[in-house]
Amino acid sequence: METQVKQGESLTRSAFLLAFDLRKEKLTQRGDLGYLLRAATLAELLLAGNLADESGKARALTAPAAEPGSLRAVVWEQISNSPPRSWRRWVQKHNGKAVRLVRDELAAARMINVERRRILLFPVERITPRKAYLSRRLAERVGQAIRGGQPVGLLDEDVRVLAALATAARLKTVVPSWREARLRRDRIQQLSAPVEPIATALRKSVEQARAAAASGGG
What we know:
Layout: H1 11-18, E1 20-21, E2 26-27, H2 30-47, E3 51-54, E4 57-60, H3 71-80, E5 85-86, H4 87-92, H5 95-108, E6 112-119, E7 122-129, H6 132-147, H7 157-168, H8 178-183, H9 185-192, H10 196-217
Helix pairs in contact: 1-2, 1-7, 2-3, 2-5, 2-7, 2-10, 6-7, 7-9, 7-10
């Protein structure tokens, strides 16, 4: 496998890299990125057996081997110190902080560049990938997983889950239009099966956030 996941990167870091629009050389849909990152972290914890789905709620089981201060450690601590709550709650909680945590992890790993400056006294941050080809390869593989061609059961689990979450988040780098996602609804349901409650929570969180933004804009 040639993508960054095989090189020791987590689903969460891969989700961040997948969000780069390489043509525009910038992150896309930054308002939704925190939801995607937290969903990816929840998926990692669920698939590793650290969490379980209990009637639509996340229940803590065993602590993960996570670096202190990482998003995985932060999310685990939040859930383990709380009674079982809905996946949607954990997708939405502190989503802005999730972006900053993963950004800093990737910057420390020299996977991205972060440039900060001020325009008319306002701070501006520009994030670009240091290895754009990794994002490109990952987008190609995730896009192929969504469009079909290979049976879902033969896909690598990381690509399968990323495809499910990217679709739930309406990530334009791999799903150009929501119409295309609807046309592939059965395929997406198959992709989502291992993390179905998380994918559903992510989709509803993004829909709610966009509806709220549209209402506020009107």
